[in-house]
Design a protein that fits this description.
131 residues; 5 strands; five-stranded parallel sheet; alpha/beta; globular
Length: 131
């Protein structure tokens, strides 16, 4: 049986590495941690996970990325996978984008970059408690 997946999406490799390190330190091997550097790659990863019958339970997504912005990506994901917990990380999202993600993607939370590790982990735990 495969472990559930937490997917991190950010166009900065350093951010992805930092998220994975923090998640692994907190949750150990309870989950598999995947990363994607843009929305297209994230959609490919999600498709592969579902083809392999592996459950995606949570996505942490940057807002400002080349191509598809984070709010649009989360809305797309929500249409096909409404049960996935969605968290947006950003230093630059406008309130309209955040509000749109809350309404159309059931956004669990939006955290500012740079984030506090404790705040991120508590947000993830509160999201996972809804499953």
């Amino acid at each position: 049986m495969s472990k559930p997946v937490i997917l991190c999406v950010d166009d900065e490799r350093m951010v992805l590495d930092s998220l994975r390190t923090q998640l692994a330190a907190e949750f150990g091997n309870a989950y598999t941690y995947e990363g994607a550097e843009d929305a297209e790659e994230a959609l490919e990863v999600i498709s592969e996970l579902y083809d392999e019958k592996i459950t995606l339970i949570l996505i942490i997504c940057d807002w400002l990325m080349p191509g598809i912005k984070g709010d649009e990506l989360l809305i797309r994901i929500h249409k096909n996978y409404p049960h996935v917990i969605k968290i947006m990380l950003t230093g630059q999202a406008d309130e309209v984008a955040i509000d749109r993600a809350k309404k159309q993607a059931n956004l669990h939370s939006c955290l500012s970059k740079p984030w506090l590790e404790s705040e991120l982990l508590e947000t993830i735990k509160s999201g996972l408690s809804k499953l």
